[in-house]
Every structure is written in C-alpha cells, then in structure tokens.
Amino acid sequence: MSIIRDTVEREREATRDTLVASLRSNVNINGGGVITWDSNGYFNSTSRFIVIANGRGAFFSTNGYFSISIPTSGTILGVGGASNVTATSAGIPISNWQALYYILPIGSNNASIASNFRIVSYTSDVVIPDNWVLLAVNNLDTNTLSITGGKYTLHKGESIDATKYSSAFVPKDTLVASLRANVNISGGGVITWDSNGYFNSTSRFIVIANGRGAFFSTNGFFDITIPTSGTIQGVGGASNVTATSAGIPISNWQALYYILPIGSGNVSIASNFRIASYTSDVVIPDNWVLVASRNGDNNTLSIAGGKYTLHQGGSVDTTKYSSAFVPNADLVGELPTDFTSSKATNGYQKLPSGLIIQWMELNKSMVHGESNILTFPIAFPTSLLGVTQGYGDGVDTTTTSIYFRDIARSTTSITYQYGAVNGGTYTTRLRIIAIGY
Q: Model confidence at 305, in pLDDT bands (50, 70, 90)?
C-alpha cells in the first residue's frame, strides 16, 4: 500500500509542478525582438518569445525552456467561437476581443511547434487549459493589443523593439515623435481641394528630422502620398470612401489621417489612410497624423496642421507659398493677372479689381463748333463707366468763355465738341480721365 501511496503522491507532485510552472509561464514569457501589430491587425515578431528558467524536467521542458516562434504559414485553429485563421508572412491576424495562445508541449524539448497556436474567442463555451500561454489579446474598447501578459501594449500600425524597451506601453520616444509629426508634416506640392470635395496633392507630404530609429522611422522620415485608388476606411462613424485620380473625398466635419508605420521605412502605405468622423466613439491613436480636416461652419479645409486653409475649388502651391491662408477660390478666379500700366501723356492703369483708369489730353487750336475724337490708349473690354474733364492753358477765361461737351462715347473713344461764346478760334488744352472695365 505504501508503494502505491508513494506513486500517487509523486504523480500528484508532478502534476502540481507542471501546473505551477505552466501558470508561471504567463508571467515569465519574454523576448520577441521587434514586435508588430500592423494596420490590418496582424501580430508578428522578428524573434522568438521564450519561457526560460521556469523549471527543467519531464514535468515541464526537458531542455529547461520553450521557444515560441510566430509561424508564417499554415492554419491557426480557432476555439471558443473563433474561426480558424491563416498565418502569413505578416503574422497571425487577431480580431476584436480575440486572444492568441501557445500550447506548451509539456515533457518535450524547446522546439516551437506551429500547430500549437490557437485563436480564442469568448462567444462559445471553452476551457483554457493550464499549459496554454497567453501571447496577445485584442481589446476593442481601447483598440489595443496587450502582449505577453501586458508587458507591451500596441495600437494598430505600431511596433516596439523588445531588445530596447521594457515598458508596458509604447515608448515615450515613440509617443513624442508621433505627436510632434502633426506639427512637422510639410510638403505636398500643389495641394488641391476641388469643387466636389476631393483632396489631393501633386507631391508627397513628408515628416522628416523628427527622429530616426526603431522607435519611429528606420530611415529618419515618412513619406505620405495621397493614393489614387482603393478604399479608405472610415472610423468614428464615417463611411468608407474611394480614392480616385481626383484624390480622397472629405465630407463636412471629417478628417483625413495617415497611420505612421512605426519601426519601418519611409514608404507610403495606401492602406494606412483613414477617414474619421465624430458621430461614433473612437480613439485616435498617437501614431495617426492629421493630414487634413474639414470645417463645416466656414466650409474650409485645414491642411497639414493648419499650415494651409482652402475653400472648395481652391489650391495652393506649397513650393511658393508658406502662409497659413490662401485667397478664397472665388476671389482668385475673379482676379485678373494683367496689372500693367502706361505712364505716357495718354496712358492707363489696370487695377486688381478689374477696373481700368485712362487719361488723355488734347492740345490744339480749335474753332467754335469743332469736334475731335479722342481714342483711348487701350479699349475698355466691357464698359466705359464715366468721364471727367478739365481745360485751360492758352485761353484767358476771364474774357473768353469756352466749353467742351462729349457728344459720343464708346469703349474705344470719346468725341468732344469745342465751343466759344464769342466764336473765334483759340488754342487750348483739354484733359480727361476715364474709368471703365
């Protein structure tokens, strides 16, 4: 009986040892290299996760540790109501309120087994065995992924280098650089917001000299190029929209964001653009850069952190202008480009409003009743609005009464008739100023 009792006790002890070591693994797991949760919800790591110094023997790992490497192919079985998913080179997709587990191969060596990964949901009854280690869980409330027991927390599109950072949250360096990017964004070439509400640019926007390294951009900058095709996902109550050759449509009180691919190179990613509204609850992650925001009160589009503001139908060449505002598109359309003038005796001045001022003089010997045609230096394109006149020089007006009257006018000339009360011929000078457009 004692032999049987001893055997049972040893089995109980072994079972307890396995239980304790397995549960402790959820705290002891670490590693992963650069851990990423991309904008499409795929979880990946550049290096293995490892559970080590957690016990050695048949009750746990015969090598004293377990390696856990994210597979790049194959089917990941779903339990608890979760569907099976497919592992790819991007990693394993983890949907809302789902978790990724790894089944520790108790009593075997350290080799990672691709078929031991499981996707778990909560919508069907399920018991999570004690030898399942939690790798990551997707929290929909905060739109974050908690990794290796909460050691790291990422938003979609973020990554963290576990060889450098040990905080449970995205590093301060990443947070600061990401938020500063909203001020540092520049470029765009000729930026346009057309009459149909489509936002576009002829060149990339860029965030540069904002930090370099795995905590931000590995190339030291991010390009942001407006896509000309594809679906732009809507968040915060906004519907998905379609990018075209005209750009991306932005409706009233909506904003266009770009998700910085933290920890990667500078290449612009079309799927990283988002249209955000305010009509449903949404958290804007710190690595989302505001590209443009539409104000419904004054129907303007604020661009690149307020560097430029456009009305519909407006555009601005950022290679030439740096002002925070550019003229109203309607006003720009009405302004002539010709502001020329002539400073001759018979001359003119074209004004920004489109008005034209012209001046002329007639200096000659004139007979009572004589008519003279004065041709304007340039024709008024549309209309002659008014004329004012003055005369003198050569005539003693204290003894002689003279007068001029215009008897015909057009956009190209005006005809004056000269008169003297006592008749006769006199030499005098007539000066006129005419206004038209």
A: confident
